[in-house]
């Protein structure tokens, strides 16, 4: 990290302490600059959010080549959310502990295992493990769907799965086959809020070792508070099922 960039990041962390500071690294030709942003998160002492307006203003000044934030009164070790969002953005993340002053950088790997990833809403969650399966198995790409925390609890708010599936290329079917999207209602919820990939009896995953027992049928899913996993799809999961969806490019 160049000295003038580190100095600018440290000054920003000190000014915003004990809140998390956040900003962007920009490149314009050979010149690199630090662009400080306001932290618009609901709880800026625990997390950060860069508004789309600030991001756009930064892009007017140069190419975004990195995302920066501080960890007040904590180490620079990346949290599961840091790791997930680094992968989601496809950009290096630079984490500055403050007031300790240690800087750690992480870079996206481009490949997060389907199994065992921690749950991070909006980055590593039930929809994302499904989207990643479709991309790796069938080569399908979906847009980045914005989803606020707790959207499923708002009766007067959008029902994201029910409203988005048709435009995403899915249609309802009566009986599942391998690769279908199973949409469920889990817990106290106003809308169907969970999804998984129906695997049937074939639990093979691309480039991953899978150990499951029993005849199945099986489901790949990622439940809040648990690592992503393969489970037997039956019993209470059948009771929770609201939609069985098949993509128009199903194989």
Topology, pairings included?
Elements: H1 3-16, E1 22-28, E2 31-37, H2 52-59, E3 63-72, H3 80-89, E4 93-98, E5 103-106, H4 126-138, H5 160-164, E6 170-172, E7 181-184, E8 194-200, E9 218-221, E10 229-232, H6 236-240, E11 241-247
Parallel strand pairs: 3-4
Antiparallel strand pairs: 1-2, 1-3, 4-5, 6-11, 7-8, 7-11, 8-9, 9-10
Describe this structure in words.
The protein has helices at residues 3-16, 52-59, 80-89, 126-138, 160-164, 236-240; strands at 22-28, 31-37, 63-72, 93-98, 103-106, 170-172, 181-184, 194-200, 218-221, 229-232, 241-247. The protein has 2 domains: 3-106, Cytidine Deaminase, domain 2 (3-Layer(aba) Sandwich); 126-247, endopeptidase fold (from Nostoc punctiforme) (Alpha-Beta Complex). It is built from 6 helices and 11 strands. The model has no long low-confidence stretch (mean pLDDT 93). Helix content is 22%, strand content 25%. By secondary structure, it is α+β, with helices and mostly antiparallel strands. A hairpin with a 2-residue loop joins β1 and β2.
């Amino acid at each position: 990290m160049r000295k003038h960039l580190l100095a600018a990041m440290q000054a920003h962390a000190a000014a915003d302490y004990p809140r998390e500071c956040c900003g962007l690294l920009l490149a314009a030709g050979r010149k690199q600059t630090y662009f400080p942003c306001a932290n618009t998160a609901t709880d800026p002492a625990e997390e950060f959010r860069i508004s789309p307006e600030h991001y756009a203003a930064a892009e007017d000044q140069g190419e975004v080549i990195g995302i920066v934030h501080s960890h007040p009164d904590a180490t620079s070790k990346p949290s599961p959310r840091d790791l997930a969002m680094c992968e989601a953005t496809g950009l290096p993340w630079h984490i500055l502990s403050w007031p300790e002053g240690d800087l750690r950088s992480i870079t996206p790997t481009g490949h997060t295992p389907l199994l065992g990833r921690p749950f991070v809403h909006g980055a590593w969650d039930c929809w994302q493990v499904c989207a990643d399966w479709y991309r790796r198995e069938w080569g399908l790409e979906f847009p980045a769907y914005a989803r606020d925390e707790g959207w499923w609890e708002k009766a007067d708010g959008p029902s994201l799965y029910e409203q988005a599936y048709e435009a995403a290329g899915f249609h309802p079917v009566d009986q599942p086959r391998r690769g279908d999207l199973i949409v469920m209602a889990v817990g106290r919820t106003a809308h169907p809020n969970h999804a998984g990939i129906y695997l049937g009896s074939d639990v093979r995953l691309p480039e991953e070792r899978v150990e499951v027992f029993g005849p199945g049928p099986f489901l790949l899913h990622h439940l809040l508070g648990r690592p992503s996993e393969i489970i037997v799809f039956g019993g209470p999961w059948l009771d929770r099922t609201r939609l069985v969806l098949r993509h128009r490019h199903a194989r």
